[in-house]
């Protein structure tokens, strides 16, 4: 019996080894085929993304990170007949934020509110009112040094942008002639309004890449350069203007008058050298 079993085992041995070899070969072919199908799928997907629908995916990526931002420009200067400045624009910074991102970090709002010079309740209410927006001014037209201190807090969604603020070196002595501008640097009264088209510059536009915190990480392209406003020279002489204003104010105080006007002309040309109204 033992000899019979040994002989049977010897007869079946080669067949079993053949079957094992056959099964291994089949498995290798199956795995190779599966990997080949996966490779073909990846190649097809790469062709679809890179060639067939590349414009679509490029547009989708640009909409998430590529932005066009305005380049602010300075308003034209107003000078007297001798070139002395009567109205000049100085660069300042404005702090803005993304309400959606700021509302996601409520623990940082108290620190941001202190830096902005407001209380956290007012800041939170302002953000909630604009929760559906991606932009809100937090503080406008501040000193660049103050803007850097606010940005140093590294609060997500907070950024700054360059703006310009109008200054009048002669103060009230010629304020009624020059008029004034609003917070967006647009003329509202006087010569600022009358010559708005000449004084107002043309803002530029540039294409930039922003990160998720709204910070500019790369300037991609200059779409349109900014053009500053044109300067205007008046016939007014600032020294004569100051004297006329001072004397008119003194005369009104001495006489108790309710109003008064002074106009100083150049006799030869008729040019207005000073004009004061109180």
Provide structural commentary.
This protein has 278 residues and is an alpha+beta fold. Helix content is 45%, strand content 24%. It contains 10 helices and 10 strands. It has helices spanning 2-52, 54-65, 99-103, 109-116, 120-129, 144-151, 175-178, 190-194, 196-199, 238-255, and strands at 66-71, 78-79, 85-97, 136-142, 158-167, 204-210, 216-224, 232-233, 261-265, 272-277. Strands 2, 3, 4, 5 and 8 form a 5-stranded mixed β-sheet that branches. The chain has a 3-stranded antiparallel β-sheet with strand order 1-6-7. Strand 2 and strand 3 (85-97) form a beta hairpin. The termini are far apart. The mean pLDDT is 84.
Task: Provide tags for this entry.
278 residues; 45% helix; five-stranded mixed beta sheet; three-stranded antiparallel beta sheet; single chain; 24% strand; alpha+beta
Topology:
Blueprint: H1 2-52, H2 54-65, E1 66-71, E2 78-79, E3 85-97, H3 99-103, H4 109-116, H5 120-129, E4 136-142, H6 144-151, E5 158-167, H7 175-178, H8 190-194, H9 196-199, E6 204-210, E7 216-224, E8 232-233, H10 238-255, E9 261-265, E10 272-277
Parallel strand pairs: 2-8
Antiparallel strand pairs: 1-6, 2-3, 3-4, 3-5, 6-7, 9-10
Tell me the overall shape: elongated
Number of helices: 10
Beta content: 15-25%
Strand segment tally: 10
> Roughly what percent helix?
40-55%
Structural class: alpha+beta
Low-confidence stretches: none
- Would you tell me the overall average pLDDT? 84
Distance between the termini: 136 Å
Elements, N to C (H/E): HHEEEHHHEHEHHHEEEHEE
**Rounded radius of gyration (Å):** 38 Å
């Amino acid at each position: 019996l033992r000899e019979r079993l040994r002989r049977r085992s010897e007869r079946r041995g080669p067949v079993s080894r053949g079957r094992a070899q056959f099964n291994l070969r089949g498995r290798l072919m199956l795995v190779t085929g599966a990997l080949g199908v996966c490779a073909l799928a990846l190649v097809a997907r790469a062709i679809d993304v890179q060639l067939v629908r590349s414009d679509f995916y490029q547009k989708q990526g640009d909409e998430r990170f590529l932005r066009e931002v305005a380049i602010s420009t300075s308003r034209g200067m107003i000078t007297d007949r001798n070139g002395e400045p009567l109205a000049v624009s100085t660069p300042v910074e404005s702090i803005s934020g993304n309400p959606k991102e700021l509302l996601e970090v409520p623990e940082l709002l108290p620190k941001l509110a202190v830096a902005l010079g407001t209380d956290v309740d007012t800041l939170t209410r302002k953000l909630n009112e604009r929760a559906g927006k991606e932009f809100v001014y937090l503080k406008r037209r501040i000193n660049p040094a103050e803007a850097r201190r606010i940005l140093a807090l590294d609060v997500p969604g907070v950024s700054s942008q360059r703006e310009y603020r109008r200054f009048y070196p002669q103060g009230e002595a010629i304020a009624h002639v020059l008029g004034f501008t609003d917070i967006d640097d647009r003329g509202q009264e006087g010569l600022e309004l009358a010559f708005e088209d000449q004084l107002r510059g043309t803002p530029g536009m540039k294409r930039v890449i922003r990160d998720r915190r709204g910070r500019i990480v790369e300037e991609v392209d200059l779409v349109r350069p900014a053009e500053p406003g044109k300067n205007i020279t008046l016939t007014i002489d600032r020294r004569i203007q100051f004297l006329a204003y001072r004397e008119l104010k003194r005369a009104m105080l001495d006489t108790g008058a309710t109003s008064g006007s002074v106009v100083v002309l150049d006799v030869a040309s008729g040019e207005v050298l000073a004009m004061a109204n109180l």
